[in-house]
Specification:
The structure holds 2 protein chains of 2 kinds. By secondary structure, chain A is mainly α. Chain A contains 16 helices and 3 strands. In chain A, helix 2 runs antiparallel to helix 4. Chain A starts with a helix and ends in a 5-residue tail after the last helix. Chain B is mostly helical. Chain B has one domain. About 2% of the residues of chain B have low confidence. Classes of the chains: A mainly alpha, B mainly alpha.
Chain lengths: 442, 469
């Protein structure tokens, strides 16, 4: 019996205008965004390769640089991939990643124009489609009077609601699966890129996340639909929920947290004070000028001040680190609030899986920073021990590749969001069954 | 008669669930916006130390940022004006060099639309304009009351006009209520805490903004009427309208970004710095060698002078390259913004930014002001120090053998003037009057009006010709 309900519902939905509309819009956006993001990725990759070739051709151990490799999965979820620099220089403290490789439009651009990627399409378009499919599933049948007819036959109510759920899942899986297949085909055939097995795993997990997100919107629709009598009321309520999930929760969370946990202020004033204090002290006891004739005296002077400078830079870094930690903890708090919304959870989880979340950037910076000490040590050797300096320089004469975020790190970053989505799904499933069983058909 | 229909329409709307829903949402958001506006810490007085090397400048605070914030990146408050003419905005998305203004927020947060008037009206009110109108005609047709109404001695045009005025009127109630609550919070709490002080010109701007908002909302009301007349069933009408809404408000503006990114390729920072490096490496050695070979340099003094000239020229090339790069980025963003004009939501956003003097164009005005200021500043430095040597992180040191003697040169550094600098010219931003706002947004206003007229004419045409059953 349950299959008859499912088949009827599915057919009903597949034939509807809304399904056609939603699917066409979704696929069109996916095609456009994949083609554009693919080209963008390729140009960034070209530039990465140029940068690496430039380095290999003329390795500079003094102005040593490390490069962040473009992430192929950013085609699916762009996230923070293009917001931050991807060239980090080791010479200054703190380590900076200010340079941009690739067709970077600059941070200002991406702040104004959201990227239309898979996550955007799922969050905005497919979730809306889910609501459209679900809003009249119960209340609409009630209005048309078909609910009474159906339930007067020997069908358990649980089969009816299960049938509706399954048919909803089928109808929503069609655009989702098609989007993923089209996206992957474009990437592989047009772009000629091949995924590693780990990337396949990541993509399939991203798919699961998007399914969970879309299904939670569908089931919210069922729940609301079985609590209302009129389809139009149910649609109105659902639209409000959709607006809340997609815009209001992230908007309010970011705006409010920005104020509530406001950054007292950047440490720049303190940093400037430490710096100016240091240079004042340095100017007070001017050392010998560099000249080939008095290298020894100059070296002695440099060694003394280099040590003091290291100490100064360590204290500056501590100030900055404290500030950066506060920034990240604020971002974490916003993320926790955003887990109220399935679409936001979906975004965070997909970005973590695509290695384009803010943690990937952190990972890169931490790795670069781990080379900062050794690199400085090497530079300082110039004045201490020329032979060892030449020896140490060799370490920085070859490119150091930054290892990408591991799968387990990605997963542990995505896990809270995946769990939030899963719990929401289970909860909504139980609620939708419960409310439908209690639905008064009279 | 029109008034009667409008009144009936308003009364009818007031009793449906959508009205209290909008009322609550709008009130909550406007209150939140007010609270956020008054808790914004006041900016400290900013006075840079007078210096003849370079100077940090800050733009005037945005009083009306609670109306239209613009993106975070466009709210960059400070810029560094270096001797040599390089003007560098102190960006926030570069965690390496965090600027010392604490109004820029957190770069680790995803870009979400912040709660300002623009957000509330652009997103929420436009959506509700659709929700209020999707069944005005199609619903009456379904209920059969449309034939009854038109059986009376009223023209169809007045029915349409009445419905239009009714829907607009209903939407104005929550809007005005929200704005009043918002301003009350800002005026009362802001006056007590002393955080926000509004002047007459600000009220004028806000009045303009509200006027604009009415035009914007009315456009969506007319769109709703058009679809509602053209489509027989209310549910189909809502579906079509929501598709339009998603396309106009969500997809088109962001699509513009993708198209611009695709069509206008800009040189990356890596390429830029590579090019600069090459100029530096090539020009540096060669020029100096040529001069030595031609016998123009014979002693240390001449060597120093040559180095100074060389450095100034090289810096000119490097700064020009950087300025070119930046203007290419700006051109690309302008292109994206022009493409986005296809969406009325973007038009409304730009007009809002122009009126409240915020956003991208404001940022550009600030930087242009800074460029003008640099000319004054350079003159001042030339007057005090006598010469202008670019200040930058690039430097060289080389030795050359001339006439058997080894001469050693370092790149010159600008000189800090030690004397009295009480006549230092401080930066002040060029004024941006309400008239300027209006002048700039006139074209956009016209486009928004055209959308209105277009939808009204279309709705009228369809309604007059369509059968009522």
């Amino acid at each position: 019996m349950i299959w008859i309900v499912t088949a009827r519902e599915t057919l009903d939905n597949l034939m509807s205008l809304k399904f056609l509309f939603g699917t066409v819009l979704c696929l069109a956006l996916v095609v456009i965004s994949t083609v554009v993001s693919l080209r963008d990725y390729q140009s960034r990759m070209d530039e990465y390769n140029t940068a690496v070739a430039d380095f290999n051709e003329k390795p500079d151990s003094f102005y040593f640089k490390m490069y962040r490799k473009p992430e192929v999965l950013s085609i699916f979820a762009r996230g923070f991939e293009k917001r931050f620099g991807n060239v980090a220089g080791l010479i200054y403290m703190p380590v900076q990643a200010s340079g941009f490789m690739g067709a970077s439009e600059g941070a200002e651009f991406s702040a104004e124009f959201a990227s239309i990627d898979f996550v955007f399409v799922v969050r905005v378009i497919v979730s809306l489609l889910a609501i459209f499919l679900a809003y009249d599933a119960v209340s609409g049948e009630y209005e048309r009077g078909t609910l009474k007819l159906m339930l007067s036959r020997p069908v358990p109510r649980s089969s009816v609601i299960l049938g509706k759920l399954i048919s909803g899942a089928i109808c929503l899986l069609i655009p989702l699966i098609m989007s993923f297949i089209i996206g992957i085909l474009i990437i592989q055939l047009v772009g000629g890129l091949a995924f590693t097995s780990e990337e396949w795993l990541r993509i399939s997990l991203m798919f699961v996340v998007t399914v969970l997100c879309v299904m939670s919107f569908y089931m919210i629709g069922l729940v609301v639909s079985s609590r209302t009598r009129q389809a139009s009321t149910s649609l109105l309520i659902l639209l409000l929920i959709w607006i809340a999930g997609v815009f209001l929760i992230p908007g309010v969370a970011t705006s409010a947290m920005d104020r509530y946990r406001r950054m007292a202020s950047t440490p720049d004033k303190d940093v400037a004070a430490i710096n100016s204090d240091f240079y004042r002290r340095k100017q007070k006891g001017p050392g010998p000028e560099y000249h080939p004739n008095n290298i020894d005296a100059y070296a002695k002077y440099r060694i003394k001040w280099d040590e003091l400078e290291d100490e100064k830079d360590r204290s500056i870094w501590n100030l900055r680190k404290r500030y950066l930690d506060r920034l990240y903890s604020q971002a974490d708090l916003v993320q926790w609030i955003c887990r109220l919304s399935p679409s936001e959870s979906c975004m965070y989880a997909s970005e973590a899986l695509a290695r384009t979340y803010v943690g990937a950037y952190r990972n890169f910076m931490d790795y670069v920073r781990s080379y900062h000490g050794p690199h400085r040590e090497m530079i300082r050797l110039i004045w201490k021990d020329r032979d060892r300096y030449r020896e140490e320089t060799k370490k920085f004469k070859k490119l150091i590749e930054v290892p990408p975020v591991t799968f387990s790190a990605s997963l542990s970053a995505a896990l809270p969001d995946i769990c939030a989505l899963a719990i929401l799904n289970v909860l909504l499933f139980m609620l939708s069954v419960l409310f439908f069983i209690r639905y008064d058909v009279h | 008669m029109i008034r009667q229909i409008a009144k009936k329409e308003v009364r009818h709307n007031l009793y449906t669930i959508r009205f209290p829903a909008l009322l609550v949402i709008s009130a909550v958001l406007f209150i939140l916006n007010g609270i956020l506006a008054v808790t914004e810490p006041a900016q400290e007085e900013f006075r840079p130390d007078p210096s003849t090397i370079g100077v940090t400048i800050r733009r005037e605070p945005d009083i009306l940022q609670f109306c239209a914030r613009g993106t975070n990146a466009d709210r960059i408050q400070m810029a560094r004006v270096d001797l040599g003419g390089a003007i560098k905005p102190m960006t926030m998305d570069n965690p390496g060099s965090l600027p010392s203004g604490d109004h820029l927020g957190n770069y680790a947060l995803p870009h979400a639309d912040r709660i300002d008037w623009m957000f509330i009206i652009k997103m929420i009110f436009s959506l509700f304009a659709i929700i209020f109108t999707f069944d005005t005609i199609s619903g009456e047709r379904e209920k059969g009351t449309l034939t009854l109404m038109c059986a009376n001695s009223i023209s169809r045009s007045s029915v349409l006009l009445g419905k239009y005025l009714g829907a607009c009127g209903t939407l104005m109630i929550p809007l005005m209520l929200g704005v009043v609550i918002n301003l009350l919070i800002i005026l009362v709490v802001g006056a007590i805490a002393g955080t926000v002080s509004l002047q007459l010109s600000h009220f004028l701007r806000m009045g303009l903004l509200i006027l604009m908002s009415i035009v914007y909302i009315s456009m969506f009301v007319l769109l709703g009427l058009l679809v509602s007349t053209a489509v027989r069933r209310s549910s189909t009408s809502l579906l079509v309208l929501l598709a339009f809404w998603v396309a106009l408000v969500m997809v088109l503006p962001n699509m513009a970004g993708i198209i611009a990114e695709h069509s206008a390729k800009t040189e990356s920072e890596y390429q830029l710095s590579k090019r600069q490096r090459q100029t530096w490496d090539l020009a540096g050695g060669d020029e100096l060698n040529k001069k030595i070979e031609s016998g123009k340099i014979t002693n240390q003094e001449e060597m120093d002078r040559a180095a100074e000239e060389l450095f100034t020229n090289m810096m000119k090339i490097i700064n020009n390259a950087e300025a070119e790069h930046r203007s290419a980025l700006i051109a690309k963003r302008r292109l994206a913004r022009h493409i986005a004009l296809a969406s009325p939501a973007a038009i409304y956003q730009y007009v809002g930014e122009a009126i409240s003097n915020s956003g991208f164009e404001r940022q550009q005005r600030f930087l242009r002001s800074a460029a003008n200021y640099y000319l004054v500043y350079e003159n001042y430095v030339r007057e005090k120090v006598g010469k202008v040597i670019p200040n930058c992180s690039w430097s060289f040191s080389m030795s050359r053998t001339v006439n058997g003697k080894s001469l050693y040169v370092n790149s010159p550094r600008p000189e800090q003037y030690k004397g009295d600098m009480s006549d230092f010219p401080y930066f002040s931003e060029q004024r941006w009057s309400t008239m300027d706002s209006l002048r700039v947004s006139l074209t956009n206003l016209a486009i928004l009006f055209l959308w209105n007229v277009l939808f009204f004419v279309a709705a009228h045409y369809v309604f007059v010709r369509r059968s009522l059953r």
